[in-house]
Amino acid sequence: MNKHATRLRRARKTRARIADLKMVRLCVFRTNNHIYAQVISAEGDKVLAQASTLESEVRSSLKSGSNVEAAALIGKRIAEKAKAAGVEKVAFDRSGFQYHGRVKALAEAARENGLSF
Questions:
Q1: Integer Cα distance of 56 and 87 in angstroms
Q2: Sign of the CA dihedral 17, 19, 24, 25?
Q3: Block means of pLDDT (10 residues each) for the chain, length 117 residues?
Q4: Which of 40, 51, 89, 115 is the most exposed place for a label (fewest CB within 10 A)?
Q5: What CATH number does residue 83 fall under?
Q6: What is the total count of domains within the chain?
Q7: What is the spatial distance between Cα 7 and Cα 2, in angstroms, rounded to a whole number?
Q8: Which Gene Ontology BP terms does the record give (predicted)?
Q9: Distances in Å between the alpha carbon of 49 and those of 5, 26, 36, 112?
């Protein structure tokens, strides 16, 4: 198996556990240039809130979308948007990515700004 296939396998296992819990999930996806976060409903059919480094307000304030500072800003924004949508408690779905670096920075910033997981 290659790196991509193993990451998708890990993501599938995590999402199966979250689906059993019937919880709203905070899904994180990262690329080499950007990071994305979505709050997805418990049924998995609706995106309740989303934030990414592609948003124009974020792009103007950041030098790069692929660093820890950008991830922390996205974590703060997704927490604010989720709270505005009435979501306080989520399950963290790291999409098979290692809990380290940008993924960790996003998660910690979301926790500091009011999301609990």
A1: 24
A2: positive
A3: 94 95 97 97 96 95 94 97 97 96 98 96
A4: 89
A5: 3.30.420.100
A6: 1
A7: 9
A8: translation
A9: 27, 9, 11, 17
